[in-house]
Write a structure and sequence with these properties.
The chain has about 140 residues and is an alpha/beta fold. It folds into two domains: about 70 residues, Signal recognition particle alu RNA binding heterodimer, srp9/1 (2-Layer Sandwich); about 70 residues, 2-Layer Sandwich (Signal recognition particle alu RNA binding heterodimer, srp9/1). The chain is built from four helices and eight strands. The two termini are about 30 Å apart. The relative contact order is 0.17. The model has no long low-confidence stretch (mean pLDDT about 95). InterPro entries: Glyas_Bleomycin-R_OHBP_Dase, Glyas_Fos-R_dOase_dom, VOC_core. It holds the Pfam family Glyoxalase. This is Glyoxalase/bleomycin resistance protein/dioxygenase superfamily protein.
């Protein structure tokens, strides 16, 4: 089986606030907005992020009962420092400061209004010594 697309869902008491976070800071666009259910995507991407109201009959009771998110969504952006600055200017607390990793990512973590963890990533060149030791030998 090969999936035709991919989607993830955030279950929250505040669907419109969560959707506004993703549209404001990560340039996602609303596809469907039913109030209790909102879909977001970027352009013609073959993935989408859905936001569904906790307690809605379509959400299993066991899922609605969860209040802490342990999911981490990764979003690749062109300029991680620009996104970090926009978040901070908007009053959003960064969970970590931007850092450049030897394996070729500059990134930081933040949480959306529902508490979902987001890894905001900019792809950069890996450290040459690290690349030689870890990539060229494979």
């Amino acid at each position: 089986m090969q999936p035709a697309a991919f989607g993830a869902t955030v279950v929250t008491d505040r669907p419109s606030d969560v959707a506004a976070f993703y549209t404001q800071y990560l340039d996602l666009q609303v596809g469907i907005d039913l109030g209790w259910f909102i879909t977001l995507r970027r352009g013609t991407a073959d993935w989408e992020l859905a936001i569904c109201e906790r307690g809605h009959p379509t959400v299993p009771a066991a899922v609605s009962a969860q209040t802490e998110s342990t999911n981490v969504f990764g979003f690749i952006v062109d300029d991680v420092d620009k996104v970090a600055a926009l978040l901070v200017e908007g009053g959003v607390r960064l969970e970590t400061e931007p850092v450049t990793e030897v394996f070729g990512q500059r990134h930081f973590f933040v949480r959306d209004p529902a508490g979902t963890w987001i890894d905001v990533i900019q792809l950069v060149e890996p450290d040459p010594e690290w690349a030689t030791a870890n990539l060229e030998s494979r």
